[in-house]
Amino acid sequence: MPEIKKVAVLGSGVMGSGIAAHLANAGIPSLMLDIVPDKLTPEEEKRGLSLNSPAVRNRFATQGLQTALKANPAAFFVSKGAELVTIGNFEDDWSKLAECDWIIEVVVERLDIKKQVFKRVAEIAHPAAIISSNTSGISIQAMAEGLPEEFQKRFMVTHFFNPVRYMKLLEIVPHPNSDPSLIEFMRRFGEDTLGKGVIICKDTPNFIGNRIGIYGMMSTLKRMSENSLRVEEVDAILGRASGRPKSAAFRTSDLVGLDTSLHVARNVYDNAPDDPERDLFLTPDWVQQMADKRWLGDKTGQGFYKKVKDAKGKSTILSLNPQTFEYEAQVETPLADTKLEEAARRSDARKRLETLAYLDDRAGKFGWTVLADTLLYTAKIAPQIADDIQAIDQAMKWGYNWDLGIFESWDAIGPLKSVQKMRAEGREIPQWLVEFINRGQDYFYIEQNGRKRMWDFNEGRYVAIPERTDLISLASLKKDKANILRSNDSASLIDLGDGVLCLEFTSKMNTIDPEMVQLGMWSLNKLNTDDKWKGMVIGNEGSDFCAGANLFLAVMAANSGEFGQIEQMVKATQDWCMAIKYSQKPIVVAPFGRTLGGGCEITMAGTRIRAYAETYIGQVEVGPGLIPGAGGNKELLIRNIERMRGMTGPFPPVQKTFEAISYAKVSTSAEEARSIGFLRKTDRITLNKARLISDAKADVLELANQEGGYKPPQPFSFKLPGEGGYLAGEQLIEGLEMTKAISKHDGVIARKLLFVLTGGTEASPVREVSEQYLLDLEREAFVELCKLPKTQERMQYILMHGGKALRN
């Protein structure tokens, strides 16, 4: 079995440096090389450098690494990850390729240059090294032509999407001579180690994702002109209402770069002479004018949109009018004369798309036309570019962030109904699709005998969708009701097998409410009183792990003056978190996505955290005018005390904790959460979200089966600064108020937080206080803040304005 311990990345542009950064995120060292410059820059001349200076010879790789470090959004989980990237150049460091287990070519998209590179790679790579190209569409057979057969066995395309860290799709294209076992190894490596969604593609221009994606863009340009729509109107139709990202078509183009899009389109035109829609890939005149003027999008300051400042310095975004070629103010409410909003407000993506497709107004007609174009084009070329419909759907969801893939979209609008409409419009229907409809089939995906199946356009029948048996799916487990031990509207307790339970959150946004707490406590009692169970996972498969406490309940109680009810809810959640922490059997919490407020507190209560790499964790209670109320203050304080042992005095951990909570710090990755203090060194990170529950279960079993058995932690006692520390901190708060850096109410919240963290009136550097003492302090502070009108205003504002905070 191959093993990848070190990787060489040949090319340090945006893609090369992004790949090197993501390898570092996965803990894999890389050697990033680029060409040697042939002339000095003015700055290098000023510094007296020569072309032989290492700084000059490595200039491009150095710039690439700096680009990755400065990238926004960030390419590295934490900047320290850059230490795993070694830079060099193609001349001085080429011999080091012999040390690498995987060599990725990421040079300019020119076949002649790539062939030169691979000829040199073949001479130096060790016999077991895997070789791949990150090309976005050049034929793998053309790149490998003339190279040894042994090289071809280890050769493939590994096409990452940009930005590499965030885009899930990884397309693998085998060479006809590729070793199938190596293709399968790289599929698993891409999924499990790099956290990617991997699909196997055929060797066709632009493979799957970009072939269909760029067709959709070119169709949009054509239909936009025919329907005389504005740029922002098109994006309004092709955004949420179509089950696409908010950036839709033109905003996405500005982000990606118009030059990139046009290059991909030209690649289809030049290399797919038999494409059924070949002429569509030619650039419209007005778009070519944009390219000629370098109106390429964000990287050149303007594209389909342009950000400007008015006389008062306020930023506004204008849109390009293709007729006048001038940037104009956007229509405030695009397509207000249509029923577009009726489609956009549906919560289910399938319902949104179905509603849009059959609207009888200009928004619906345009949305239908572009959708029908894309569906039929994909159906025509599907057998050429992919082995099955699922690969096509995954490419569009993982590579373009669509809610639904092509054939999932077709299922949403009804294949039979939509094909009838297409026929009525005189559109050509591909033969395999005609046969599908003639058999009376009306869905490309069905469920049969508990298994999801898809239509196989090669065999003309439904086939089972392959599933990874080593990964746990809560949705699949719950199909067997025997696996659900108890449930309510907010949570379920599920048997994961092997003596491991899973407490799954199921409330809206997985917010914490009394029903969740009640089932959580019942679950802990079952775990700790029945010898059958070894431990528990707390996790779910929602969009985010937990958005915190149910703020609506707190607002309702505060408005009614039911502060005793608020105290009861807080006390119950505190007790639950303490019960998690001191459970007699191990509990592993598996956070991902937004893990905020109470979600963060539950996470820190666990025996161990198994976090998804993209976990954005933080205590954000100051936003609604509160402080953490379920033990978050003491748990973060404990972690900072542990990390800062040996430092003088008890105040530094208090200060560190105060800063994280008062500034509502939210990590940009699970690794950064470790540096803030939310995760300990012993906590673990998973890059593939699909593995999260499985990995958390394995952690539970490891803890339960450790030598000597699992033992819960010992209660923690604090020696805190007490009143002296509070007075010192209060001076800082007063200074911030005087300089207007914070509002008066911010100061009130900060003082409450400081009072709790310094230990109130009973603590001192020589007198210990218990965890329960701190819990009582924070609960009292939480309730007192709820009584304040300005906090109530903040809570209501957040609920009414989609989570935006009020600074009053």
UniProtKB/TrEMBL annotation:
Stretches assigned to the 3-hydroxyacyl-CoA dehydrogenase NAD binding domain: 6-204
Domain 3-hydroxyacyl-CoA dehydrogenase C-terminal: residue ranges: 207-306
GO annotation (BP), single: fatty acid metabolic process
Keyword terms: Fatty acid metabolism, Lipid degradation, Lipid metabolism, NAD, Oxidoreductase
Annotated catalysed reactions: a (3S)-3-hydroxyacyl-CoA + NAD(+) = a 3-oxoacyl-CoA + NADH + H(+)
Keyword Metal-binding: no
Protein family according to the UniProt entry: Belongs to the 3-hydroxyacyl-CoA dehydrogenase family.
UniProt name for this protein: 3-hydroxyacyl-CoA dehydrogenase/enoyl-CoA hydratase family protein
Organism: Candidatus Chlorohelix allophototropha
